[in-house]
From TrEMBL:
PROSITE patterns: HTH_TETR_2 (PS50977)
Name of the molecule in the record: TetR/AcrR family transcriptional regulator
Source superkingdom: Bacteria
Residue ranges of DNA binding: 36-55
Matches recorded under Pfam families: TetR_C_31, TetR_N
Keyword Zinc in record: no
UniProtKB keywords: DNA-binding
Domain HTH tetR-type: 13-73
Alphabetized PANTHER family for the sequence: HTH-TYPE TRANSCRIPTIONAL REGULATOR PKSA, HTH-TYPE TRANSCRIPTIONAL REGULATOR RUTR
Amino acid sequence: MSTEPGTARRSLNERRQQLLDAAVEVMSERGVAATTTRAITEAAGVPQGMFHYCFDSKSALLRDLLERECETALAAAWQLDPGTDTFTGGLAKAVQTQLARVRTAPGPYLVLAELTVAARTDPELLELSRWERRQYVDLVKGQLQRWKLDLPEAELESLAVVIIAGIEGLTDAWLTTRDDEAGVAAAELFASGIGALVEARLT
């Protein structure tokens, strides 16, 4: 990609977002480990020095990217509506919707999954990885609480963790196989199993 003309002026935050967008593009093709700062600036069409103007290091970019992609995923996360669905039906709809999002745009999900794994082994990113996990658990717990489940706090937390693990497993399976039919069937089986467990608690 050609470099932007020197007359182009953007704020620091706009430049950071430009580089983060380019990083997602490059990492979707090459993977996180193989992505260099030079490849990112080339994809963004800016001089190499722009990277160091916006970020102290590649780890700093990874931190901002993981936080941004996590927040984006959370904003689009599924919602259970006690007023319109049974728990099983709502969960099935939510899981299938999430799977459809991944099928439509797998690149960002691949990057987020790889960033999450990398963060667990990077001392500079470990706390961010823990923060990400806490956000997801709290989100799902909040959804479960809308159903007024009469469960101890620890059990509610465990149920949230199981649901997250299931959705992540279904997503990873599809990203690996790209088998739509198998993904849909597995999602239905997961939702019916968890749904039966939860609805038994509601009776």
